[in-house]
Amino acid sequence: MPTPLHLVVCAGIVPDPLQTLEPISTAIAPGLKNEMVLPAVLDPWAASALYEAAALAARNPGSKLWLVSLGPKAKLQQVMMTIAQKVPFELVPIDGPIGGFPDAHSTAQVLAETIAALPGLDRSKLLLFGGWESATRGAGVTLQLVGERLGITDQFQGVDQIELRDDGSFEVLERVEGGKHQASVCAGAPAVLGWATGNLAEPRNNPQVGMANMRTVMPALQKAKPTTLPANGLRFVSVALPKQQRTTRVVKDLTPDEIAAELAAWIGAE
Amino acid sequence: METILVLTHADDSGASLTKPSLEAVTAGLSLAAQLQAPLTIGIVAVDPATAANTLASTGVRLIAVSGEAFAQPRYATDAAACEALCRAANATMVLVPGSSRFARVAAGVAHRLNGFIDTHITGINAAAENIEVTRWFYRQRIEVVLSRDSRPWFVLLDAGTHAPFIGEAAAAIAEQIAVQPPTIRTTVAGLRAPQQGAQTIRPDARLLFVAGAGWTKKQPDGQTHVPEAGDLILGLLRATSASLGSSKSLVDQGGEGHSVLPFLTHLNQIGQTGATPRHPKGLSTCCHGEEPHVVGWRFIAERRAISLDPNCGWARGKADVVYVADAFQVIAKLNALLEAAKP
To answer: How many domains does chain A fold into?
Structure first.
């Protein structure tokens, strides 16, 4: 029997992983050189969360899916042109700073207040999704903090799978040490799930889904509330690219036998 | 004046402390010595006696939350236990091991105590009572030293960044902290390996072997040789007890309907959306791209690569040695050598 869910996915935007990043100092906090013109994508692990949430919503008629995203409006709009074609959702944009240097606690506060104020949200049906870590700050704490602020004490991180049962309970697989999963069974919503990769491939672009989403995405972006994120006593002492550059020995003239012998000796050496 | 608390927890046996916990103890002792600050160690275990005895030689105050309710890693109970330990210690600095168990709850506990948290800390240093920590941003691309004025400050230490504490065991008693177990809605069913057969992820291995997408591409004869590639890779893992990492593109091929190596999962993935493991040595094969060479290899000490592309810009400057060769041929020879060398 399907269980209608209220799925809220928190997902930030990050520079395309193939871009070269260079830190700079700004008046407020560190930033990235040309940050606003770097191509952006939806945070990869959060994107997994979005696709898993959409699949869950599709399997459970009556469910609703919100995508809550904090970032500069212009960058959000750019990313939504792609993401909106993937799966149906209602965008809840928050116009705020981009990047990994704002404090996670401030980010969590804004997200929690936004989620708490979502019209029609039934917290007893709430599954709060997001990436277990971002590709920017990569702290793995924002979702946890949002959950605490919303009073949710069933939380799972590094999730690769959720299996919903007829009684509303669900089994979760979380990544733990040694390449293993911890399997847990939760009595049901509300819960927080910080997703790792999951099992779903990226959905193909669907222009019809895109058109339906964009009807609500553009007005939502226009109405996005601007927010600032206090530093909470966080001070950056230094921000730098790693300087270590190795002197690479390129070996072109050895036979496979000779290379194997060299590698065997290297592997065996202490 | 800072007061320091190190949180620790027991392993699957319920008694002995985990390696990341012992690493956090080392970090706590070092920080306390630098600051000349009082240190308390908190233990979460079914029965904390063994753990307390292990920590006896630290000579610091030991406090514990124990009982069956706290046996399994679970947000509600672990958060309640850690919160109680933090309140009992009344610490300004809380060092937390970067285990999956405590990474799940540390931020929540910090919030409950009106504190702040920074995670994935790779170094901690105190100069003139000004504590600074080091961590990486943008998936190991930008190194940052930061500090906080706010207290309590929770610091989640990355595993493998400190030596585990070793001390002579002696009889010690941990002060029991009473906790009312919270309502439990989650039952832990146990651990599962993602695939049957060979164990390919070994965090304690000396060698990380990275397989790239080239293993499943067409070879000089115009054909793919995926089964042979799988045999060669598994053979090397058997011979060296290495841990297996893979590039994103290779793992993703499974979801795109291409030939895949059946023992690979997303758990093997290193790089931007995967792990950044710590091993003394790393050997990458058939990889081309930033993912394995820059991000995934950040914490690999000695790095070698086998690639057919002598101009691979990603390997240059990142690897110590690049062998321009066919990995199929080299690994076959290497496996034979390693097998022959076995006693």
So the answer is: 1
Instruction: Give the nearest partner residue to A187 out of B73, B185, B207, using CB atoms.
Output: B185
In this prediction the ipTM stands at 0.94
> Contact at 8 Å (CB) between A94 and A109?
no
Q: Is residue A264 part of a domain?
A: no
- What is the chain A residue with the closest CA to B106? A141
**Which residue in A154, A181, A235 is closest to B147 by CB distance?**
A235
Tell me the residue range of the domain where A183 lies. Answer: 6-226
| Short-list A257, A258, A180, A263, CA closest to B239 | A263
- B105-155 pLDDT tens trace: 999 999 999 999 999 999 999 976 689 999 999 988 899 999 999 999 999
**Is residue A269 a part of any domain in this protein?**
no
Q: What is the dihedral of CA A208, A210, A215, A219, to 10 degrees?
A: 180
For residue range B5-27, list pLDDT tens digits in order.
Answer: 999 999 988 889 999 999 999 99
B207-340 CATH fold: Rossmann fold (3.40.50)
pTM: 0.91
CATH classification at residue A45: 3.40.50.620
Residue A184 lies in a domain: yes
In a domain, A41, yes or no: yes
Residue A137 to chain B, least CA–CA distance (Å): 5
Residue of A nearest to B255 (CA): A201
Say whether B138 and A21 touch across the interface (CB within 8 A): yes
Question: A50 to chain B, minimum CA–CA distance in Å?
Answer: 15
Cα–Cα distance for residue pair B186/A173, rounded to 1 Å? 12
Contact between chains at A153 and B334 (C-beta distance less than 8 A): no
How far from A227 is each of A54, A93, A102, B335, CA to CA, in Å? 28, 11, 12, 58
Least CB–CB distance from B188: residue in A179, A182, A267: A182
Give the count of beta carbons closer than 10 Å to the beta carbon of residue A215.
10
Domain coordinates in residue numbering, chain B: 4-176, 207-340
Domains B4-176 and B207-340 share a fold: yes
Give the CATH superfamily of B4-176.
Answer: HUPs (3.40.50.620)
Alpha-carbon gap, residue A70 to A93, rounded angstroms: 6
Q: List all residues of chain A from 229 to 258 with a beta carbon under 8 Å from chain B.
A: 232-242, 245-252, 254, 256-257
